């Protein structure tokens, strides 16, 4: 029988997080202080909230498996058996092989070479709204920017980019049936492009993935399709919410926004603090492979474990004054993009897009202020942190 972990109120802590996903941090604080390993009946998983425990979980694929966290879902077992494993849901040694092969195509140079195009896209998006004196950071910039970048990277026609956005939103939402249909549609779409690139390679990522090999080992077609899905969804959601979270946080700290306008070289450190302060991906999913103990709790083999990155990044034992937004924080060893073998492969792209977006926004506009007549609404996801809309006035 599972160890009882009962909070001191009738309403569980994770139910409170579900009710107010924009402000989970007080609940995280209570979890860390009193229930660092807490079983959530709402999420059917153990919530792990302290930095050291979170790091230990995500660094130990032998005891806490990514692959088995998917197989543990009864309805997904047969689907998983017939499907390719993605980087997110693969354990070593296949994870190392997959990552090595993908790294051959998705190189640091590939990312850095995107900078001029990203700058052009940001300016184009702002040109549409600059004369209006207001901008919706999410819908006018943060949403379309990564979609356009990823679509062009993969070699997707411009007319299909809006479909990308719809698929991505469905995948991170709680709508299970719609999610399944979206995955099927995405696979079918990318399969067509893969077939075309086999016939005639182009200068795009899918062609590079098809040709990547190490000692005669290539990615399977199913693995290429799964990486395309991963890049689309994770790349879009991470960048979109990182940009939105950055502007939301800077609006709450106008003196820091002025400091950045005076010195744009502070932007990279600011982005790292945004990742810590409002982590775009709040929690992960693992499965215990054996009976084990963590934080005084017995976790049974097969139990789902959810390390909370957003809580770990505000752990008082790791960060001084963790509730403060401090762009000069040194050191800032957040784990907002994961850690170890599952460190986010698209983190460099998210950082680049966010840096350029902030540089252009803070250069083009003298002042940016959130329009407080519109209420902030959290995105439809229990593991992503971000807002659906962020209207701001912009002074040229």
Automatic annotation (TrEMBL):
Keywords: Heme, Iron, Metal-binding, Monooxygenase, Oxidoreductase. The gene is yjiB_3. Belongs to the cytochrome P450 family. GO terms for molecular function: heme binding; iron ion binding; monooxygenase activity; oxidoreductase activity, acting on paired donors, with incorporation or reduction of molecular oxygen. PANTHER family: CYTOCHROME P450 YJIB-RELATED, P450, PUTATIVE (EUROFUNG)-RELATED. This is Putative cytochrome P450 YjiB. InterPro entries: Cyt_P450, Cyt_P450_B, Cyt_P450_CS, Cyt_P450_sf. CDD domains: P450_EryK-like (cd11032). It comes from Dictyobacter alpinus. PROSITE patterns: CYTOCHROME_P450.
């Amino acid at each position: 029988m599972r160890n009882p972990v009962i909070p001191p109120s009738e309403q569980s802590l994770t139910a409170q997080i579900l009710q107010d996903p924009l402000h989970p941090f007080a609940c995280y604080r209570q979890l860390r202080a009193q229930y660092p390993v807490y079983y959530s009946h709402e999420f059917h998983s153990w919530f792990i909230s302290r930095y050291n425990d979170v790091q230990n979980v995500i660094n130990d694929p032998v005891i806490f498996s990514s692959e088995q966290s998917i197989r543990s879902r009864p309805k997904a077992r047969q689907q998983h058996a017939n499907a390719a494993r993605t980087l997110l849901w693969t354990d070593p040694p296949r994870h190392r092989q997959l990552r090595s092969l993908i790294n051959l195509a998705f190189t640091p140079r590939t990312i850095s070479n995107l900078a001029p195009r990203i700058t052009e896209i940001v300016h184009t998006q702002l040109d549409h709204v600059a004369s209006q004196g207001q901008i919706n950071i999410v819908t006018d910039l943060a949403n379309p920017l990564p979609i356009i970048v990823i679509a062009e990277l993969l070699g997707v026609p411009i007319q299909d980019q809006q479909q990308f956005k719809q698929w991505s939103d469905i995948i991170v939402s709680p709508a299970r049936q719609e999610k399944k249909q979206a995955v099927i549609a995405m696979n079918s779409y990318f399969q067509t492009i893969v077939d075309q690139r086999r016939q005639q390679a182009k200068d795009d990522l899918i062609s590079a993935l098809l040709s990547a090999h190490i000692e005669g080992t290539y990615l399977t077609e199913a693995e290429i399709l799964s990486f395309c899905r991963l890049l689309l969804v994770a790349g879009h959601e991470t960048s979109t919410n990182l940009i939105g979270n950055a502007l939301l946080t800077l609006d709450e700290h106008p003196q820091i926004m002025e400091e950045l306008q005076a010195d744009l070289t502070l932007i990279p450190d600011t982005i790292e603090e945004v990742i810590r302060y409002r982590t775009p991906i709040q929690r992960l999913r693992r499965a215990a492979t054996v009976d084990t103990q963590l934080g005084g709790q017995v976790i049974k083999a097969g139990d789902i474990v959810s390390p909370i990155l957003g809580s770990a990044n505000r752990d008082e034992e790791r960060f001084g004054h963790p509730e403060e937004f401090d762009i000069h924080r040194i050191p800032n060893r957040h784990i907002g993009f994961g850690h170890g073998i599952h460190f986010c492969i698209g983190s460099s792209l998210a950082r680049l897009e966010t840096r350029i977006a902030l540089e252009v926004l803070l250069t083009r506009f003298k002042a940016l202020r959130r329009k407080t007549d519109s209420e902030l609404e959290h995105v439809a996801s229990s593991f992503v942190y971000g807002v659906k809309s962020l209207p701001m006035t912009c002074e040229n």
